[in-house]
Write a structure and sequence with these properties.
There is one protein chain. This protein is an alpha/beta fold. The chain is built from twelve helices and five strands. The chain has two domains: 4-143, Rossmann fold; 151-224, Arc Repressor Mutant, subunit A (Orthogonal Bundle). Helix content is 51%, strand content 14%. It has a five-stranded parallel beta sheet with strand order 2-1-3-4-5.
Length: 226
């Protein structure tokens, strides 16, 4: 199995065509396994399907390029997109309300306008490895926003998971990273990734955040009792 870092994936950087945007694109491409196209919001909105394509794994959104007023327009344009593209938010203001970010259900990373390029690279590497790059507080805000009650009954899909997959998916539901799951179960991170990949297919989710929310909604609290 090839290492995740060796697999180049395609991304769109949604930003203005400026020197700063081009330098940002080049900096990310030089340090992580991403091939990035710089696309303006206007182009993406008017030629969405042609621009997005079937091989786009990520949309990297420069928050300053779309602005708070245009977030609703972006979400409307992508509401009925077939397939699945993960979203990464760049240059978010530090005071951006969590309630605003909860609108983005495909969001896997949030970077602020105060973050350094080193933080950016570190975060992108974790995202490409299947992790979320956002504060734990924001993750739990997602959980509480989409789940207003305790889950009393476990979904039949959970019983289709192997015992190891159940262990791993519950730890993920508690907000644990791949590294923390591997340490807790005394296995390698690659083993964790393989089990998560299989579990995601069985419970019909496409990313880590959807899996976390699925656990909270479909695994009874009694399952978490040692």
């Amino acid at each position: 199995m090839s290492d995740d870092k060796d697999i180049a994936r395609n991304a769109i950087l949604l930003a203005g065509n400026s020197l700063q945007s081009n330098l940002l694109k080049d900096s990310i491409e030089q340090k992580v396994a991403l091939t990035i196209r710089l696309v303006s919001p206007e182009t993406l909105y008017s030629q969405r399907d042609e621009t997005l394509g079937s091989d786009t794994s990520y949309i990297i959104i420069d928050y300053s390029a779309i602005g708070n007023r245009n977030v609703a327009k972006y979400l409307e344009v992508f509401e009925d997109v077939e397939g699945y593209t993960q979203e990464i938010l760049l240059n978010a203001p530090p005071n951006l309300a969590h309630a605003e970010m909860l609108k983005w259900q495909n969001l896997v990373g949030v970077f602020y306008d105060t973050d350094t390029i080193e933080t950016l690279v570190n975060g992108f590497e974790r995202i490409l490895a299947g992790e979320l790059w956002m504060s734990r507080k924001l993750v739990y805000e997602y959980v509480h926003f989409y789940r207003r009650r305790q889950c009393a009954k476990t979904s039949p899909y959970y019983t289709k998971l192997t015992k190891r997959e159940q262990q791993i998916i519950k730890l993920l539901g508690d907000g644990a990273s791949n590294t923390e799951i591997a340490d807790a179960l005394f296995v390698s991170e690659n083993t964790v990734k393989a089990h998560l990949h299989n579990a995601f297919k069985k419970i019909k989710v496409k990313n880590r955040l959807q899996a976390l929310l699925w656990v909270k909604n479909n695994v009874a609290t009694s399952e978490f009792v040692p």
